[in-house]
Amino acid sequence: MKLTGIFEVFSRRKRPVEQISFDVPESTRNRIFLWCADVFSNRRSWSGGNDITGEFWDEIHRTLQMRHGKTQLSNARNAMSSRTTDAITFLSACSSTEFLDFLEYIFRVDCYFHVGLPDDQVVSELNDILRVDDLPFYVTNFVRETVREVANIHPFAGREMDVIKIRAYPTVISRESEVIHTNITEPVLQLLQNPAFNNANSEYLEALDDFRKGDFSDSLTKCCSSFESVLKVVCHKKGWNYQQSDTANTLIKVIIENSNLENYFEPVLTIVATLRNRLSKAHGAGTQSRHVPRHIAVYALNSTAVSILMIVSEVGMQ
Predict the structure, then answer these.
(1) Entry pTM
(2) Where residue 179 falls among pLDDT bands split at 50, 70, 90?
(3) Lower CB count within 10 Å: N or C terminus of the chain?
């Protein structure tokens, strides 16, 4: 794991202004330990991969040592009998925010890429465990993109080939409401995994992250950026006339003119851009200070997601 990845985790991010009260109970922690043993043993892998449970806990232990600046993580008498014992003993008693760091580390250890289960299945199973105790959090999927590069490793050196790169690792985000999350947030995150929407996906994930940090103004700005990116992809894929410099308002007009959407949808679809222009840091505030309340940021996130889902469905790109 890269050193930067050790510190770019949940507990190190700026805490929200209006913090969510939560606790990761012992039952959830134990379920996740058991689940990790199952996943990294590769006993469910169709390809018959090796058991890498020991390697997993060794990496987690080294990561936690660096993260917390400790050679021994737990003060328990038998903790150093093994790295696995020390790590699990520490994680059993650490703060809830530190335990959420561990959830992100699961996907960043080097040995994760020897797990034989599909990434989406692993993430989905972890989210199912979090739901059992109704924790207000959700783990996002990997964001990957395929790029064309000239290889520099034997025996492919000098050849141009497709390379899959990770743009974002699974991240813990807040789950505001089960109904909204299931019907809006999760579907839009799945939709934006389409490689065509890579930029929009990154921007929407950043909007969610800013929201969790309590930076509601930046969250609003990135919501609009994500929406504009989707609109440009739609216009490009459909061959509709537009400019890269066009704003959301102009792009929405292009889509309404070329689709079956009625004109009365225009003010509805432009609301996120309007909020960005009036409230966010995207434009200078002049003599007036601007404050984006939490409930407006929630509205912007959900409105962005709903608008993206509707437009992509309307033009047949879902």
Answers:
(1) 0.67
(2) low
(3) C
